[in-house]
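quick one
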Amino acid sequence: MAQPEVMASAFAPGKCILFGEHAVVFGHPAVAVAIDQGVRVRIRESLSWVLEGLPFEPSRHPHISHIIDNVFEYDGHPLNIDVESTLFSAAGMGSSAALSNAFGAALHSFLSPDEPLIPIKLAKMAHSAEATAQKGRASPTDTATSALGGFVVVSGGKVEGTRHVFDTSLVTPEGKRDWSVNVVDVPEGIGDAWLVMGFTGEGSPTGRMVAKVAKLVSSDSDRMGDLESIANITNAGLTALSAGNIEALGMAMDACHERLRNLEVSSPKLERLVEASRPHSLGAKLTGAGGGGCMVALTDNPDRVSEAIEVAGGKPLTSRLGARGVRITAD
Ligand code: MEV
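structure w/ (R)-mevalonate:
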């Protein structure tokens, strides 16, 4: 029997945290940027439910099943879902957020091809999918950055020099949490700089690193000072971003790395990749939870930094600074 030909496709980018990881857990702002790499989802009607060529098992894919059942309440024809990712997984690049956004956008386009995509709606939908998959604990940083694109600031309150986009909240096992999601408008010239991320090849255990910082901060008051310094560095980084001053942006990244190192979330491999990148970079730091995962360098010589990362044993990925958010695609 011939396959029915109704299909839809969407792409959503991954993210990289420039400033504020860990401090954001304590209510300070974090700045993330959308990257060129991401997740593409294609869906088409099928005779049975299929994911990546295999029978779809909803319990093994909580992001996708939450969007099908709870968000769209879809009970139509079975779907064949194809997922293609250019992100390293479990590396702190927001691959699950990108998957949720791309799948939500593809299903929206499949069901309502004439209705425009609303990125804020998608960001909230993807955040609820992350929360469902992560036992009720998820900040909106990854999902909002993947949906909106560009530079996104997530904070417990208003942040000077940013444009407010939406507020969101979540009831977590520790109580209700509220976030303000904002974007930074940057001058054109910032596009001359590149980001090179270096994957250590080791997973980044977010829950374990967040717990480690919480313990350290409660037993050593100097470490609370490091969190406050990260908040000040984040604000300096935001000023540099808004002014398009990439040298100052790089210096703020270096300073942020030193504070993250004080918080004991770096690792020997991350240190090796940061050190290897620095001679060819404007700034370099670990990005995300640490303990493994990725570092990121800001540079105007991405080829040289990629080579240095490879020689030091990492896997490089180069991106423009500030990619577009989620979108419907034609193929
Ligand atoms: C992880 O990518 C970023 C952290 O700040 C955790 C979080 O914000 O939930 C370490």
